[in-house]
Design a protein that fits this description.
Belongs to the inositol monophosphatase superfamily. Keywords: Hydrolase, Magnesium, Metal-binding. Pfam families: Inositol_P. It catalyses: a myo-inositol phosphate + H2O = myo-inositol + phosphate. The radius of gyration is 18 Å and the shape is globular. It has eight helices and 15 strands. Strand 3 and strand 4 form a beta hairpin. Helix 4 packs across helix 8. The strands form three sheets. The protein has an eight-stranded mixed β-sheet with strand order 4-3-5-6-7-8-9-10, with helices on both faces. The chain has a five-stranded mixed β-sheet with strand order 12-11-13-15-14, sandwiched between helices. Strands 1-2 form a two-stranded antiparallel sheet. The longest helix is centred in the N-terminal third of the chain and has 22 residues.
């Protein structure tokens, strides 16, 4: 049994407490009450209930910590303490269409990280339907349940499977995405769009996919996944190759070789 910090225990407990209701709601997806949050951006009662359950658990454990929540926005806390970053249901559109691919994402961001700037230190991505817990602690590696995760070792781009997100109504720049796809698609063995950036990054950490690129993402989609990839020995950057992913909403992930190749192809496509 792999030992982990109390924070991972708290995060896992919160996700597992929200999961049974998500599973039940998923089974009754046609009866869900659904409101519209924006063009092709839906939020369900399931989403809101999951967030409420997670928030209650996290607040009980760390009452003075702030939170950044997908549905409820920012909740102020002690500025000297870490904050939780929570997406209670990443892959909402999949969920609402009965596609069994979605996850709960929880991260801890410490305001006093390396170089004196905020830094994600703990991460959990939990897939309720498969009961898979992808988790990581800074400096202690990335794990799936009790098994250590490592990014794929593939170096030949022609053998790789790459994940992405495709712009849709109200989100992203289709023309820009098309330029990038045109540059990458002919060099790889496959490109997949699964509909959950959190799970895409977790799968890169687990070596199920060799790389990933996407932009126009929010920090709650990616905070946990970025730490997972890095702790699994991978690299994550923005499209310029710098460490400004959360600020720019741009992400390239993979092992050192694949990340470098994807970065060069994307940079060339966007010139």
């Amino acid at each position: 049994m792999v030992s982990h910090s109390g924070l991972i225990t708290v995060m896992t407990r919160a996700a597992r407490k929200a999961a049974p209701r998500l599973r039940r709601d998923f089974g009754e997806v046609e009866q869900l009450q659904v409101s519209r949050k924006g063009p092709a951006d839906f939020v369900s009662m399931a989403d809101k209930r999951a967030e409420q359950t997670i928030v209650e658990e996290l607040r009980n454990a760390r009452p003075d910590w702030g939170m950044l929540l997908e549905e409820s926005g920012e909740v102020e806390g002690n500025p000297d303490k870490p904050r939780w970053i929570v997406d209670p249901l990443d892959g909402t559109t999949n969920f609402l269409h009965g596609v069994p691919h979605f996850a709960i994402s929880i991260a801890v961001e410490d305001p006093r990280g390396a170089a004196g700037r905020p830094e994600v230190t703990h991460a959990l991505i939990y897939q309720p339907l498969t009961d898979e817990s992808f988790w990581a602690e800074k400096g202690r590696g990335a794990w799936l349940q009790d098994g250590r995760l490592r990014v794929s070792a593939r170096r030949d781009l022609s053998e790789t499977l790459i994940g992405t997100g495709i712009p849709h109504c109200g989100r992203g720049d289709p023309a820009r995405w098309a330029k990038i796809y045109a540059a990458i698609g002919s060099h790889v063995s496959g490109v997949r769009r699964f509909g959950s950036a959190a799970l895409d990054l977790a799968w890169v950490a687990a070596g199920r996919m060799d790389g990933f690129w996407e932009d126009d993402l929010d920090i709650w989609d990616t905070a946990a996944g970025v730490l997972l990839v890095r702790e699994a020995g991978g690299f994550v950057s923005d499209y310029r190759g710098s460490d400004q992913m959360f600020k720019r909403g741009e992400y390239i992930a993979g092992n050192g070789d694949i990340h470098s190749r994807l970065h060069k192809l994307i940079a060339g496509a966007l010139r």
